[in-house]
Amino acid sequence: MADQAPQRKRTFRKFTYRGIDLEQLLDLSSEQFMGMVHCRARRRFQRGLKRKPMGLIKKLRAAKKSAPAGEKPETVKTHLRNMIIVPEMIGSVVGVYNGKVFNQVEIKPEMTGHYLGEFSISYKPVRHGRPGIGATSSSKFVPLK
Question: Smallest Cα–Cα separation from 114: which of 82, 91, 76, 92?
Answer without folding.
Answer: 82
